[in-house]
Amino acid sequence: MKRQRAEAAGRKGELAAELYLRAKGWSVLARRRKTAVGEIDLVARRAGVIAFVEVKWRKRTEDLGFAIDEYRLRRVAAAAEAVAHEYAQNGEDLRIDVILLAPGRLPQHIVNAWQP
Description:
Blueprint: H1 2-23, E1 27-35, E2 38-46, E3 49-57, H2 70-87, E4 93-101, E5 108-110
Parallel strand pairs: 3-4
Antiparallel strand pairs: 1-2, 2-3, 4-5
Family: Belongs to the UPF0102 family.
Organism: Tsuneonella dongtanensis
Protein name: UPF0102 protein A6F68_01993
């Protein structure tokens, strides 16, 4: 039951992140893009940039600082590398972003969160 609640909260977080990105002028190209090496929560495009976005939702703002780490970012980067050719056109820049969400606060968008 706990896993189901976490899954539902994650989906709500991804929807909130998608709405946030759209409000900022991004086009969302894919949701929950699965690859052989992992999943990408959102793939978005704006002004010559393709962002592979990891979304993290926490019940408490204090927990957001622990929501993302190098291991998780490395997995998103590997998944992005596996499918980047499907989204990048005409030399668009590619990057890994993170959106952190918690109740009662605006989304925190971390641009280019992964730089190997």
